[in-house]
Amino acid sequence: MRFYKIKALFKLGIEDLSKNMNVFIYVLMPLGFAFLYSNIGEGSKESLFSLCVLLNIAMVPVALMGTIIAEEKEKNTLRTLMLNDVKGFEILFAKAFICMLFVFVNDILIYFVFQLPMASFLLYQGVTLLVGIAVIFFGAFVGLMAKNQMSAGLLSLPFMFLLMAPMFIMLFKNDIASKISSFLPTDAMMTILAKISQNEMTLSSVGMPFVVVIAWFILSFLLFNVAYKKMGVDN
């Protein structure tokens, strides 16, 4: 992997993104909910923080990543890059760094909006960043499957709703739904964050949630890899 090419692609991606302000709705929405919940939300600050971070993880890595990749395809930039000795994973890493930068900044801002204790700052950020990385390949998969930016937005919706499922399941408190939800990376993230806030984080209490996150990382990576090989150039 050639990091000088990733650096060049990163700079190019930032420049292109600055010309397409529509994509920032995915970035600003979780932050907007954080300000809303911090003023009128009911429940502990830690729980409300988890909900806003869930929105951030469900929207930014999937929708933003998908839109960026689809835009490159729409302009035929992706085809040109791949035909000029730029490897798929170099493109992916450059775009992923851009998306994860927004995820990371959002997580930090949301943390300070809720004024959570700095003693847990690194743990919270480490967990949310890990989950963001685990799902970001889904965004790349969506981008490769989409014909254009509009279709990328539509294709990303099922993935976003799936990742947001723990938020809705909490309202209904259904045992079967909760059990199914426990296999989602966002549910695993909320479980780990809850253990951190309760000072109950042990290997036994968060071991399975971490396994779930790693499993989703592998699944999303495989989906992207298959889509890239089958559709990356010819479609």
What's the order of the H and E elements? Answer: HHHHHHHHHH
What class do helices, strands and sheet pairing give? Answer: mainly alpha
Number of domains: 1
Total number of β-strand segments?
A: 0
**Number of helical stretches of at least 4 residues:** 10
Proportion of residues in helical segments: over 70%
What does the main sheet amount to?
Answer: none
The shape, in one word, is globular
Low-confidence stretches: none
Give the mean pLDDT.
83
Determine the N-to-C terminus distance.
24 Å
Rg from Cα? 18 Å
Strand content: under 5%
Architecture overview:
- With 235 residues, this protein is mainly α.
- It has one domain (3-231).
- The chain contains 10 helices and no strands.
- Helices cover 82% and strands 0% of the residues.
- The model has no long low-confidence stretch (mean pLDDT 83).
